[in-house]
Amino acid sequence: MTDQRKIEEAISSIIVAIGDDPDREGLVGTPVRIAQMYAEFFSGLECDPSDALATDFETSHDELVILRDIPFFSICEHHFLPFHGVAHIGYIPNGRVAGASKLARALDILALRPQLQERLTSEVVDAIYSRVRPKGVAAVLSAEPLCISLRGVKKPGSKIVPCASRGSFRTQSKTKREFLDLLR
């Protein structure tokens, strides 16, 4: 559970540390707003992504299923700046299909934590693979990290694009290639 009071105190201290006044008119409610924002941004810490994947349906379909262009954002654990982009998740059913919205919800739960994009990609694949039990699953998350765009090297528009796969996507190069080709 997020301790909003501690966040408010920390933000007030940061405002003082940068040389401003937390009681200044424009900053008076800022610590409260940031505490509320952090509670929302990190609400995934209190949820289990496998719970979101509990709804599935029997099917005879046994070929690739892709949910693509899923918008997401997360907060980089190194700088506490956002990264945002789109995710593409593909899987091969093993007698059951997941509710499409449930794939997106599992991604959201995992993204609403301090994260690394590479780990997020692996975690969403692992959650789907362990709960839905498909023959295989893969994900590609293409996102712009604002820590690269706004600070440091300052390269706006740069993207990180990690891929993770389990099951038949790992053991059969043809399956992974079909998934990646359909994303083009």
Short recap of the structure:
The chain is α+β, with helices and mostly antiparallel strands and 184 residues long. The chain contains 8 helices and 7 strands; from the N terminus they run H-H-H-E-E-E-E-H-E-H-E-H-E-H-H.
Describe this structure in words.
The protein has eight helices and seven strands; from the N terminus they run H-H-H-E-E-E-E-H-E-H-E-H-E-H-H. A hairpin with a 5-residue loop joins strand 2 (65-76) and strand 3 (82-92). The chain has helices at residues 4-17, 30-41, 49-52, 100-111, 117-131, 146-149, 168-171, 173-182; strands at residues 56-58, 65-76, 82-92, 96-98, 114-115, 136-145, 163-167. It is 41% helix and 25% strand. The termini are far apart. Strands 5-2-3-6-7 form a five-stranded mixed β-sheet. With 184 residues, the protein is an alpha+beta fold. The protein is elongated and about 65 Å long.
Q: Which structural traits does this protein have?
A:
alpha+beta; 7 strands; 184 residues
Number of helices: 8
Strand order of the largest sheet: 5-2-3-6-7
Q: How is the main sheet built?
A: 5 strands, mixed
Strand/helix succession: HHHEEEEHEHEHEHH
Q: Give the rounded overall mean pLDDT.
A: 97
- Helix content estimate: 40-55%
The span between the termini is 41 Å
Contiguous uncertain segments of 5+ residues: none
Question: Which percent band covers the strand fraction?
Answer: 25-35%
Radius of gyration (CA) equals 19 Å
Number of strand segments: 7
Instruction: Supply the helix-strand structural class.
Output: alpha+beta
- Envelope shape: elongated
